[in-house]
Amino acid sequence: MAEIEATTGGTLALALPFIAAALAPILRRIFGAYAAWILAVAPATAFALIFTFLPTVTAGGVISFGYEWIPAFDVRFSFRIDGLASTFALLITGIGTLIVLYSGGYLASHRDQGRFFSFILMFMGSMLGLVLADDLMTLFVYWELTSITSFLLIGFDHEREKARRGAIQALAITGGGGLALLAGFILIREVAGLNSMTEILAAGDALRTSPYYLPIFVLVLCGAFTKSAQMPFHVWLPNAMEAPTPVSAYLHSATMVKAGVYLLLRTQPALGDTALWTTVLPLFGSVTLVLGALLAVRATDIKITLAYTTVASLGLLVMLIGVSTEYALVGAVLYLIAHSLFKGGLFMVAGSVDHGAHTREIDKLGGLAKHMPITFVAALLCALSMGGITPFVGFLAKEEIYHALEYGDAYHVALMAAAILGNALMFAAAFIVALKPFVGRLPETIHHPHEGSPTIWLGPLVLGVLGLLGALFYETYHQLFSVPMASSAIGAPTEIDISWVPHLNLAFALSMATIVLGIVIYLASNAIRAATSGVISAIGWGPDHGFDQAMRGLLRFSFWSTSRIQSGRLDYYMTVTVMVIIAALFVPMILGGALPVEPQMPELRFYEWIVVAVVLVGILAVVIAKNRLTAIVSLGIQGFGTALLFMLLGAPDLSFTQFMVETLSVVILALVMTRLKLSPADHRPLREKLPDAALAVAGGAGFGLFLLSIVQRPFDPVLSDFFERYSYAIAHGHNIVNVIIVDFRGVDTMGELAVVMAAGLAILALIRIRVGRKGAAQPDPTEATP
């Protein structure tokens, strides 16, 4: 690939996770438990390399680099680093470093830990490439790589049926959305002529004013909504909890589920701020927020509770992006960073609890604070941020969200109500996870609970502390992360000055109301859980069950269609094949007005008339032959007649090839026919023969008309001149036909030889078949038919 504008640091940052993934199994076998520390160097180095770009990014600059990929289609392997991409990349690599270390402790005794490291690092590299990609096709490649690698991670414990189902469901939903996204990208490329995010962002209103805005909008949203689990596509995310906890912590904090949100933030300056955008996104987002948070309170498994709060958080982000005002986008950015920190930490807390107490069921837990004090502190830090309590980054986000929605019209009032209810439910869910397992008495069913190794509690503790430090040092936090990210999402420079110090205003009052409501929900969580479970049981059917029904329906339809199309009868297959060929010949010629004009009969010499007569006699012999063996021999007459014409027209080498092909065809077919017991003649009635005869005539006419239309076109001597000019100069051969076959079309000729060899092997298998039972009389060779 020709280099366009390479940035060594960016290229190395993209490559490091994949290099580490390739080395992971080897390092695990050599270094054992220390492999995690060695492998964590890769994402940590990538984090450091991206951090070096912050001075340029915070100044409003953009760093572009990449390589030519498919120049003929204007596709480049190109990347751009701006405020949005850099913050995402830092979250991916920074949290990814902690996840690798966490995996080293959590899966220390797993026999396939090396394979797990490979999968998680490949996923990390895919996600990093996604957020840095500039070219649309490059972005799509990384988008699908995240779906594939997440499939491997979710189904890591592939011996369990639930893990396999969760992996297939995630792949089917997100992969289908990815195909829709590809269609949207193709529309953007073909209709608007925009090939990269840089061009899209510089095009202004080009997409919004395009007559194809609606299909582009729908297709892009399908990709974003399936990836970021918006209802009703959310079902894959809770079922992805079948993956090991490090996967859940990583997918739900800064990576896979945020890919759709990233896409919406990235395209908002080009696709947003329309009536469609500000209606559809807030509608789906608010419904996802409230229902996801309600299902989180209903759940009893810590990981499932956190999974549904992730669904709710993603709904909140989509809702804010849909509102599209500057304050709403700033709120989305602040909440996205805060969510990455506290949710990654809480998922690691869930794994630590499971590792130390051997259960994740909230009703079976309690009193763990004395036995797991570090995990308890980490859980509290993350829960305080998730609950929006100062001084944590979650507080900054919640205040800005309410500030963005404090308008008096019905639209904003409805969204504000959804935000308050959703945040209150998530407040309750956060402390259900962070308090209930740790306070109270230790159940008798839990034996010897213990704190995990440093690699297990280090990650959640670091993320919890960062959530605190980000708010305390808010000026630095805004300068390095939130301001560049928000400016890129808005498409214009912006300022963020919100701090951890409360201000007595409407947003703060609403924040306090949210906390009070959250405490009420926390205290009444058992009653809410029972009521919600009753409603869901009464409804019965849901998207998750609908997915299973859709898959079963797809299998039934596949079986039905296959049994109809693949009937097992060769005559049906041949009939359909010939009909398709006839349609392919006639339809383009008729629709394209390419039917040939009536040709004039050429003046033939007497010996040429003799050859034509021989060919006609051969055709007649084939038609009236009493058995198929005679028909096969008669069929060779056509090929011999063609070979004679080649010889008369001055092409002896081509004529010789034709003679050889026809001779071998007749001999091989005759040999095969003598080994098969077939009826000696076609005993079908005339009404069954006529359709086949019509198809044969139509096929012959189609090929004849097609060849006539070709020869009536003006001859283009470009290829002939090329071969004549270079056959000797390059290939050192005087026989141009041989040079073409052996040199210019050498690979094609090799493929043809492979086909001939495969056919020969099939024929050998056929003639070795013994017909009839042992001791039965062998058939008469003269009566053999195809």
TrEMBL record:
According to the UniProt entry, the coiled-coil residues are none
Residue span, NADH-Ubiquinone oxidoreductase (complex I) chain 5 N-terminal domain = 71-117
Record's bilayer topology term? Multi-pass membrane protein
InterPro entries tied to this protein:
CPA3_Na-H_Antiporter_A, MrpA_C/MbhD, MrpA_C/MbhE, ND/Mrp_TM, Nuo/plastoQ_OxRdtase_6_NuoJ, Proton_antipo_N
Domain MrpA C-terminal/MbhD, chain residue ranges per copy: 614-677
One Pfam family for this entry, by name? Proton_antipo_N
Q: Where in the cell is it found?
A: Cell membrane; Membrane
Q: Which keywords are on file for this protein?
A: Antiport, Cell membrane, Ion transport, Membrane, Transmembrane, Transmembrane helix, Transport
The UniProt record lists the NADH:quinone oxidoreductase/Mrp antiporter transmembrane domain at: 133-407
Q: Which residues cross the membrane?
A: 6-27, 34-63, 83-104, 116-133, 168-189, 209-226, 277-297, 304-323, 329-353, 374-393, 413-435, 456-474, 506-524, 572-594, 606-625, 632-650, 656-673, 693-711, 753-771
Q: Which residues form the MrpA C-terminal/MbhE domain?
A: 690-768
* NCBIfam families per the UniProt record, alphabetical: PRK12647.1
User: What's this protein's name?
Assistant: Monovalent cation/H+ antiporter subunit A
Q: Which organism is it from?
A: Jiella pelagia
